[in-house]
């Protein structure tokens, strides 16, 4: 793999403003042939060009205080592909995240949201959550007046379903617009070491990132936005602790028979807690929805092996049939569609309160990944900051993973800005302390709650089921408490 | 005994893992409450919707009356239906739904009557087949497959079938275990069924043990109850046997597949004891005469 690098400057960018000219981007890439003796020095080097990394760089570039920082981004994938990502309107990527209003507000603040392909973003206004064993249910929607979240008056949206690629593409567009950023994409980090002391320069406390092409970058502040197996975290010697859930998250883009019970303007997100894990169906524009089904690894591999008709039947069954029927249907290697049509006649469910029938699954979108809970011991070190998945990995049942990352970015950007305006060294651990203290407890609490929810609903029978059902119904009946929880969810992360 | 108990506990634990416990809240939609003034239409042919209070009254009344007269099969049937909801019949249905054969039975909904089960054909089967044993047992006890009441007090239509199926298979359990229809045999079989199906009526039937003679009672506690509990817990769910398909099967074969040991032949035991008593009496009277 050839490594390439490019520097985006304002004059150059004009050429890239339109998609048809984007090919020009390639011409301006310079191919490195030799490794430089002394590393190039940057204020911020961010490893990882996912939503978290790109949001941070956008935030830093967009703020007047931090716009003079010399910044580099290192990403293993080809960002040009991401930047020019495009799908026809009847296809959706299977990696979709729920963005809370506060995450959106932040993205608007840094000027990224207006680059989003808004026709591919689906706000939803109501949530239906129920217990697959007892059937007890809670529904969330912003009630009429009085309990709207104060920071977003008049709005009724709980969250916005956005394809991760749509978001990263928008962030890249915004970065192009802002310019002044060195990007090394399509290359990987070979190793990270502390720099050396020479006659003119003492880099002995600075992390130096060496790329596959031999290029070396010294960082005043090295940001690890490099995912769950973060090399930056490994370099900093920060432990990440937690456990595997022995569950896989199965995702797919599916097509429903209609736009939903509330039509295009009143979309509903559904989540049913099954003993094997929650299954969620989250709305996308039109008749489309994205499926996130946490289930046993063996079940996930069975589901992936099924014919489309049987897979669709299993997803429909997951929202309709009893856990006993579902358990049995997971032992069948085929014939689930037929089984569902029989069992539906003998199972009662309120049609209006479950998702409309799924009629299709987009080819190639059925995939699964292991679910983990991980939390780094700390988010900061000397000249090190960890954000997003590098700092924490959470069960997807609350749809908070990406929002947590956005919260980190918001806080870290503010911390860096404060350090700059107060003449501090942005890489000093002391300057980074506010970021860690602001985010650690918040994330820890959310992760704890999500983890406990997973465990609570993993129980299949017994008094626990009765208690949790009672509790859920009690919360559902208490408008005040429910409103509080919703405001937390909308503003949290 | 200790070993037996331990094994039973193990079996129970095992059973808990594969099945839902009876206190699991089973229905996805709880039926709407109604009063006697606006009784809803029946959910299936012959269904009689009852209010909770009516069900409780039916349970209490049929329990008392059937204890006074254990031969009233209709009352025992009513007791079974009145106590099967809210939990137990769902558990039994779920046990069927967890098993491939059980699911097939629920899907096909076979009924056992003298028309679906031709006794002539069954009698013609080789000895030791399930069908032959069943026919022989019916002949020996002088009962017919048609002497079964129709389920009417269970609200959910599928669960009503489960109850019906349990009831119609009851005679097969007799044939399988060889226990006779007399009260003593009936109680032993009910104990077995309770350990196996957990239906409350079968457990409540244990009260009838108070009506037994002292020596029968002794036999029940020492022989038949331990047998019933051990076998009932250890055996597979007998509700999942598709009897119609097992008719030509060797009965011993089926017993070992299900994990059931045949208990001591009650009728033979009673006959032997009776003969012994008669002989003793004869000896005694002879002694007196001499």
TrEMBL record, chain A:
A cellular-component GO term for this protein: extrinsic component of mitochondrial inner membrane
Annotated FAD-binding domain residues: 43-422
Membrane topology of the entry: Peripheral membrane protein
Domain of life the protein comes from: Eukaryota
Primary localization: mitochondrion
EC number: 1.14.15.45, 1.14.15.46
Annotated metabolic or biological route of this protein: Cofactor biosynthesis; ubiquinone biosynthesis
Cofactor(s) required for function per UniProt: FAD
Secretion signal span: none
UniProt keyword Ion transport present: no
Annotated Pfam families: FAD_binding_3
Keyword terms, alphabetized: FAD, Flavoprotein, Membrane, Mitochondrion, Mitochondrion inner membrane, Monooxygenase, Oxidoreductase, Ubiquinone biosynthesis
InterPro entries per UniProt: FAD-bd, FAD/NAD-bd_sf, Ubi_Hdrlase_CS, UbiH/COQ6, UbiH/COQ6_monooxygenase, UbQ_mOase_COQ6
Record HAMAP family: COQ6_monooxygenase (MF_03193)
Quaternary structure annotation from Swiss-Prot or TrEMBL: Component of a multi-subunit COQ enzyme complex, composed of at least COQ3, COQ4, COQ5, COQ6, COQ7 and COQ9.
Annotated family: Belongs to the UbiH/COQ6 family.
Main function: FAD-dependent monooxygenase required for two non-consecutive steps during ubiquinone biosynthesis. Required for the C5-ring hydroxylation during ubiquinone biosynthesis by catalyzing the hydroxylation of 4-hydroxy-3-(all-trans-polyprenyl)benzoic acid to 3,4-dihydroxy-5-(all-trans-polyprenyl)benzoic acid. Also acts downstream of coq4, for the C1-hydroxylation during ubiquinone biosynthesis by catalyzing the hydroxylation of 2-methoxy-6-(all-trans-polyprenyl)phenol to 2-methoxy-6-(all-trans-polyprenyl)benzene-1,4-diol.
Protein name: Ubiquinone biosynthesis monooxygenase COQ6, mitochondrial
Species assigned in the record: Glutinoglossum americanum
From TrEMBL, chain B:
A cellular component annotation (GO) from this entry: extrinsic component of mitochondrial inner membrane
Principal localisation: mitochondrion
UniProt entry tagged with the keyword Ribonucleoprotein: no
Top-rank taxon: Eukaryota
Membrane-crossing residue ranges in chain numbering: none
Alphabetical keyword list: Lyase, Membrane, Metal-binding, Mitochondrion, Mitochondrion inner membrane, Ubiquinone, Ubiquinone biosynthesis, Zinc
Keyword Cytoplasm: no
Cofactor(s) the record lists: Zn(2+)
Pfam families referenced in this protein's UniProt entry, alphabetically: Coq4
GO molecular function, one term: 4-hydroxy-3-methoxy-5-polyprenylbenzoate decarboxylase activity
Stored InterPro entries: Coq4, Coq4_euk
Biological or metabolic pathway of the protein: Cofactor biosynthesis; ubiquinone biosynthesis
Record's subcellular location: Mitochondrion inner membrane
Positions of Zn(2+) binding: 170-171, 174, 186
Membrane topology: Peripheral membrane protein
Catalytic activity: a 4-hydroxy-3-methoxy-5-(all-trans-polyprenyl)benzoate + H(+) = a 2-methoxy-6-(all-trans-polyprenyl)phenol + CO2
Role, per record: Lyase that catalyzes the C1-decarboxylation of 4-hydroxy-3-methoxy-5-(all-trans-polyprenyl)benzoic acid into 2-methoxy-6-(all-trans-polyprenyl)phenol during ubiquinone biosynthesis.
Subunit organization: Component of a multi-subunit COQ enzyme complex, composed of at least COQ3, COQ4, COQ5, COQ6, COQ7 and COQ9.
Family per similarity comment: Belongs to the COQ4 family.
Stated name of the protein: 4-hydroxy-3-methoxy-5-polyprenylbenzoate decarboxylase
